[in-house]
Amino acid sequence: MVQSLDYWFEVGRKDGVAAGETAITVRSRSFSLFEERLAFGHNLLNGAYNEICRRVSDFGAVEHGEAWMNGVLVGIESVKAWPGFVVQIEDPADSSLLIYVLVSQWPAGHDPMLN
Questions:
Q1: Most buried in the list 40, 50, 68, 86, measured by CB within 10 Å?
Q2: What phi, psi does 107 have (nearest 5°)?
Q3: Helix (H), strand (E), coil (C) string for the chain
Q4: What tens-digit pLDDT sequence spans the chain (115 residues)?
Q5: Of 2, 16, 27, 1, which Cα lies nearest the Cα of 82?
């Protein structure tokens, strides 16, 4: 089945809304050597984020990945959350590329439109 740009945008939007609405708890996590850049994002956000992950190979074309990411950003912002960190890393198990979006939430009472 060939998916359209609209399909991937909607998948991304749903992913973004789900990550932005889910309560965030601070987590501790250990990272392997190949996840060094992901560990940087974890530390940057003090472990307080929700994670969206997708394999680049899921997309049939570069444009599908772009549509998905646009949908993710729209979904995140629609629930007043924000993309705290985005990174692409290689999975050493099969050399595929993984996209991670670490989603954080604004503190209660914060209006990002005013700052």
A1: 68
A2: -60, 150
A3: CCCCHHHHHHHHHHHHHHHHHCCCCCCCCCCCHHHHHHHHHHHHCCCCCEEEEEEHHHCCCHHHHHHHHHHHHHHHHHCCEEEEEEEEEECCCCCCEEEEEEEEECCCCCCCCCC
A4: 568 999 999 999 999 999 999 998 898 888 888 889 999 999 999 999 999 999 999 999 999 999 999 999 999 999 989 999 999 999 888 889 999 999 998 776 666 666 5
A5: 16
